[in-house]
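re: that complex we talked abt at group meeting.

here r the seqs, copy pasted straight from the sheet so there may be weird spacing, ignore it
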Amino acid sequence: MYVAVKGGERAIEQSWRQLASARRGDPALPALSVEQIRQQMRLAVARVMSEGSVYDEELAALAIKQAAGDLVEAIFLLRAYRTTLPRFGYTLPIETERIEIQRRISSTFKDLPGGQILGPTYDYTQRLLDFALLAEDPDAAAAQSSSAGVSAADVAPEVAVATSTPVPRVIGLLDREGLIEQEHPRTEAREPGDLSREPLSIPADRSTRLQNLARGDEGFLLALGYATQRGYGNSHPFAGEIRYGRVKVEMEVEELGWSIELGEIEVTECQMINKFDGNAQTPPAFTQGYGLAFGHAERKTMAMALVDRALRAGELGETVDSPSQDHEFVLYHSDNVEASGFVQHLKLPHYVDFQSELNLVRRLREQHPSLRAAAEPATMAPTMTPTVAPDEEQAA
Amino acid sequence: MTIPASLRSEAEIDGTVDGAAHAATDVDIDIGYNFAYLDEQTKRMIRRSLLKAVAIPGYQVPFGSREMPLPYGWGTGGIQVTAAIIGRDDTLKVIDQGSDETTNAVNIRRFFARTAGVKTTQRTAEASIIQTRHRIPEQPLTAQQIMVYQVPMPEPLYKLEPRVSECRKLHALADYGLISVKLYEDIVQHGSIATTYDYPVIVNHRYLASPSPIPKFDNPKLNMNPALQLFGAGRERRLYAIPPYTSVRSLDFDDHPFEVERWQHACALCGSRASFLDEVIVDDAGSRMYVCSDSDFCREQRSHADAGGPVPAEPASVIASV
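got the structure back, here u go
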């Protein structure tokens, strides 16, 4: 029995108080506002929304604040809140072709309809610490934010030009030659499941897998996707297209008989193009891996697309020999709320199980020939001295 | 002898209560949530799955486990089962490692006191629902009681076959050769079966099931128990059940029959020789003391002794290690 975990309610209350003060830090400094987090930590907010699987920037920012910046904890907070929300219905599928583009790149063609739009990205920065940010005066920043409003307005028309018409997808361009498989909605396909309401069952169809990956931990998907690039389930990927921007969310309301716009959300979409060697029935062609996440999340969507493609190995008749291609391995271990909970549950007391194991190991050691031999000095094997003094045996 | 403070209950230290039922009003009730937190639709879904589980003893029923405000692996399955079956008139006891006062047990008990406003108790006999992690109380249960077990890994075969889809096939075919071979290999290597907790059982002569990580000391209590026993695995999204008076057999061989662990010591506090004992290291020299893991049972034993019952044995169970 460890004393530390047996303290009762007062110890728990004391721990809560310490947590609150540790989270707040030095009270002489102004507290972070949720709005500041939302505006200035947009990538953290995006991750918490995606993996927390609810689009609400304010609540995601609140969760980050409450979790003191621990994003997995923030995701857990948001998920636990999400469970309690009522469901009104399902929106129509979002039309990412009609995305109001803020960034769009393709690595497969030098130029293409709609152009390459760099947008806000760290990709073309030199990773040098910007010491100017250290000296940033919070008040000056506030003044700047009003001028930032002006500059945003300056930028806006440019973006508007790029997005006034739907930008066709690279995948669609390749399709004109029949070079790539197309993914059309099938009328006979069953309704997508809902992993937050139904347990995962294996084999899982692609929509269920994508749902799982969209909620999946970025770090886990990144490592698995990376492994495919290093030969563990290679899928010859090219970043066909990555686009980030705002898209309308519409819902059909039965009473009206037509769809109404609920609002806009930001999403990042990645379509990987992967070589497919073909087989006796199918000529060589390109296949797709797909990634989608809330907010600006290129690393996550690219990793997701790699893993999505790797998980298709079986149905495409490729050899399944690495963890990234293994449905059970990937889908049952992708969720960081589950993983974090179970790994950390080892902090809970296990002294009953441990006591049982302790009794057993002591008994087995008593019977073990090497320890018995050591107990008798006339042994012929002097090198077989036990590494642990036989005190424990007496205690048993 | 003096009992170390860490082994005494908070109530005993306070000298106020003795583990008797707390009225619902002791803890502020949260009104922002539905009774027992889960919405009624979800509770219905869980109860339907539980009915199926009771109808097929030992069979793992997949269910739409919800994200709870406590972490996965910390009792979310048990909490959901309790939330689905608890009513306003119930009295709830929550134990972890046999004790009512480990932090997680305190947390879960408080969760239900806040969200359901039900009475809570530390006394086994008073409880109508007992949620547990890793132990079955020493005091025999009655037909009026329901045990709710928190289960980390519902699949008894997972160490031998990690694939859920494969395990489901093995259960469907009642093909349990794998686990028998594992126990046999234990005997070959160690001379005896080397599984001490989460010891696999066959429920109602059909399904292999995990009793949850209770010590095998508790396994005999599963068999023909008058209480309904419900098992919830939240993260793995499975429920299963052992209905009252159901046969539960711990796996063994004719020449290596199932055995429970025994201690050479009695409990240093109550003198019981019949209960599961925890080993506690009491000083820097490594002196050990053995005490009941079931804190309510230990307290009951001591109060009997105070009332003129048999006097506990001398604390011969404190052993000075060299």
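couple things i noticed - Residues 59 and 124 of chain A are 31 Å apart (CA to CA). Residues 1-5, 145-162, 379-396 of chain A have pLDDT under 50 and may be disordered.
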